[in-house]
Every structure is written in C-alpha cells, then in structure tokens.
Amino acid sequence: MDPRKALRTKVAKLNPYHSVSSVCLEHPDPRYYMGVKDVEQIPTSLIQTLENTGNYVLHTLDAFSLGGRAIDVQILHPITGKCMTGSSSGTAVNVFAYLNDLGIGTDGGGSVLAPAMSCNLYGFVSPLIEVENRKKFEKKSTDGIMFSPSIGFMTRDLKLLQETVEACLNLNFVDEYQSVLIDSHDENSYLFHTKEIEFPDKYGPRVPLIGFLDEVLKKCSFLISYEGPVDVHGIGDTVFGHFDEECGKAQRAACKGFLRVANMVNATALCIPDKPLGKGWIFVCESKLEKIAYMLKMAEKMPKYSDELVSRYFGNLEMYFPNGFGGIEK
C-alpha cells in the first residue's frame, strides 16, 4: 500500500484550496482516487460503473462555482492566485493538486474543458456519457443559450483518461486515415494529416461558433483548435464581461474559444495541455463512437509535457503539514 494515499485524504480533509465539499474515503485504497462534482447531474450509476471495474474508488465530493458560473469567486487558481475557472472548479483543483487521479464534472458551456485547460490537465466531455440522465437537466446559459450539461473527466495523464472513457463508452478503436480540420492560422505541426480551413473568431460571441461547428463536424473526423491561455490575462465570464467595453475586452482576453460551445452542439471534445500555462489543443467531433475512438487514438500522437517543478511542488503533500505544533504525525 502506498502510504501517500493516506496523506491525500489528510490533505483533502485539511482542504487548503476550499475545493473539497466532503471526503468519502477513510482508509487508503490502491485504486485510482476519484473526485466528483457535488451536483445532481452526475448519477450514482456512473460512479458505480467505474467502481465495478475494480480500478476506481470515490475519494471526494468537490466544490464548484455557484450557479454554473464560468469563474469561481470562492476558489483560487493554485498557480495564478486569481479566481479559479468554473464551474467544475474544485474538481480540477483536486486533480491538479494530486488529491485525486480522476475528476468527474459537468460541462454546459466549457465547465469541464476550461477548468482542465486552465490547470494544464487533460479533459474530456461527451453527451453520450449517461445520456438518458442528461436529458433531465436542460438549462439556459448566462448568455441565453439553451443546453443540457454533459458529464466529463479530468486527469493528469492521457492513458487514464482513455481508460476511463472506455469504461463508460463502448468504443471500437480504429486506425485508418480520416479528415482532421485545423485553422488556417494554426502554426503547430501534427504527426497526422490535417486540412486547413478558415475558422471564425474563436474568442468572439458563441453563436457564430455554434453555427460553424454544426456545419463542419459532419464533414470531418474531428477538428482541432489551439486555445488559451485560459483565464491568465483576462476573466472569461459573461457576468463580468457584459457590463461595458472594458469588461468585454477582459472577457475576450481570457482566451476561451471552442471549448465554450462544444457541448452546446452536442459534440464530444477533448482538451490536451501544452507546456505554457493554460494553453492547449481542443479536439471536437460529432458524438459518434467511431469518431470519438479515432480522436482519442490521434491524441496519442500529440506532445506530452511533464512540468518537473509543478510535480515536485504540488506533489509534495507533506508541505501542508510543517513540522512543529499541529504538524503531521511521525
């Protein structure tokens, strides 16, 4: 048994980031630790499905931003010290800070993908996860768009993300060439064939992006949008941004693009972190099993970055219990 498992629970109970609503595990367990956004849209059947594989155990119920807001004014980002990206804010923080291996959240207009991207995590969202349950929760976004939130996952590594998706969706992985679309202004190189097309202004209003995705996703396996840095130089929140021109500029500077609208067109999306803080690639496809499988397969060909300083600092769970009065038990 890894003794650090018990330390994870001690830190979760300490709750240094105000990101934990409650701790569900009292004794160390060798399986992957899960944190779940503490909302009714995530059914217990999903947790049971994952626990039944023998690889996962529920560790924490996670805090989240009030009313599904795109920033969380109660939780601070562990790196920037600014408001954490919402609304699955606590779930992302608890994965980033090594309390959990897997985070499960809900995404209406970017509420899984944006927090994941802001913390350089992998993220995945699909309306096919617990699809019947999803239909019960239609709502209106802060900018007046009707949608039903989807369930999504966050991890620090791609392999665990793929394993989790496979446990929930009956994927048939394929390896033949299909069409992948990228923005004509994308300067990245890819280890698979891509086709350039003109994308709309991805940091502008959502409605043109929704129309664009509705049209092009039918014609390709998936598209790639390079985005960010999320909430590093701005505040990506409609409530804040609607006041005046200056607030609108700050909202745009938060660099949230297609990740805000993937769920609104019932698409499946994957975010892959780049090395800079809050930057990465958004893969978006129609919610068809063969396209999801191909998209996840191509994700293996993307760069993988490991930040040694972040791992050493945030992976050092002993730092929350300094020696001296009230220190961790020897």
Description of the structure:
The chain is an alpha/beta fold and 330 residues long. It has a single domain (4-318), classed as Alpha-Beta Complex (Amidase signature (AS) enzymes), CATH 3.90.1300. The protein has eleven helices and 15 strands. It has helices spanning 4-14, 44-51, 89-96, 113-118, 131-134, 158-168, 206-216, 238-241, 245-252, 289-299, 308-314; strands at residues 20-23, 32-37, 56-62, 71-76, 83-85, 102-107, 122-126, 139-140, 146-147, 150-155, 180-183, 195-197, 222-227, 268-273, 280-285. Strands 1-3-2-6-10-7-14-15-13-11-12 form an eleven-stranded mixed β-sheet, with helices on both faces. Strand 4 (71-76) and strand 5 form a beta hairpin. The protein starts with a helix and ends in a 16-residue tail after the last helix.
